[in-house]
């Protein structure tokens, strides 16, 4: 007779097959190793993943998918369990050494590791390779080349950026970091001249983009690229290996590195997902065993990626099998991940991020002067900090 599971852990994932399918698959596999444990996953929207305070989750869930900018808030309010006391130093050192770009380090704060990276992402470029080839277009490698590219796109086709408030914020920070380096935020203030130049440039780009860009997130653009032929290129959006897999959408979407500013070594803003343990979890040892299992090189390269995941382990990104499965997604975007910009993670950043994104979104929508947007942004930052 089989062993009846006696311990149930509850987890909160995010609402996309990339977010929940690999966690469900790894939970099933983990329960075969530890048959006394079952893991149940609930789902929240992508916006809630980026914006919802984890204070709203820790009382009801044992394991939480988390974005690294929450680390400062989690540390200050003692919301998450430090993992260094639950996972061996040898395992931690292995994961640290084989993390994609700064993914592992982004979940460390004040000497504690609060999550393990299981999903690595950054803004990359998406394109319809079949159409780009047919139209004899060359993808831009720098931001300056983008404006030349717009002029070459024939009637009936469009370039789109995801510029809903959340993604506009990520693009704004990316362009600031590309122009001024990683230290453009100093003493809880965004360098005003840098921000003004970037906002002015974004306004210029908007003249050439699909008019719905101001409302769209990456998934909405990728769905349209995969199902229709209008949008052929998007230079800055979070990559999803799902769309590069044959058969996920009608047409395959390919990915490559985003345009950069050759004057700096910064690519784009880091995203991704870590797994963390709530301080209210009653079985931290088992939760940590599961997190360590999911983050391990073998699982990341195998079960996790095979079930629609976008791994955070370098072995998985360099795997020939995974690159065949995803038509070169990992090979073609790894450079961007390795040079990614990591957002500030201090207490209050997430509130600033959410409210600041709204200021920029309203400002671009109604053509507010860039100087005024930056004044409002830094006044908000000062009031929160």
Task: List the defining traits of the structure above.
D-Maltodextrin-Binding Protein, domain 2; single chain; 4-stranded mixed sheet; 2 domains; alpha/beta; 385 residues; 13% strand
Number of helices: 18
Task: Assign an overall shape.
Answer: globular
Span between termini: 58 Å
- Based on helices, strands and strand pairing, what is the structural class? alpha/beta
- The CATH topology of the largest domain comes to D-Maltodextrin-Binding Protein, domain 2
N to C succession of SSEs: EHEHEHHHEEEEHHEHHHEHEEHHHHHHH
Number of strands: 11
The helix content is: 40-55%
Mean pLDDT: 95
Compute the number of structural domains: 2
Order of strands across the widest beta sheet?
2-1-3-11-6
In the CATH hierarchy, the architecture of the largest domain is 3-Layer(aba) Sandwich
In the predicted model, the low-confidence regions spanning at least 5 consecutive residues are none
Give the CATH level 1 class of the largest domain.
Alpha Beta
CATH superfamily of the largest domain, called what?
Periplasmic binding protein-like II
Strand content: 5-15%
**Integer-rounded radius of gyration:** 21 Å
InterPro entries: Bact_solute-bd_prot1, SBP
Main location: periplasm
Protein name: Carbohydrate ABC transporter substrate-binding protein, CUT1 family
Pfam families: SBP_bac_8 (PF13416)
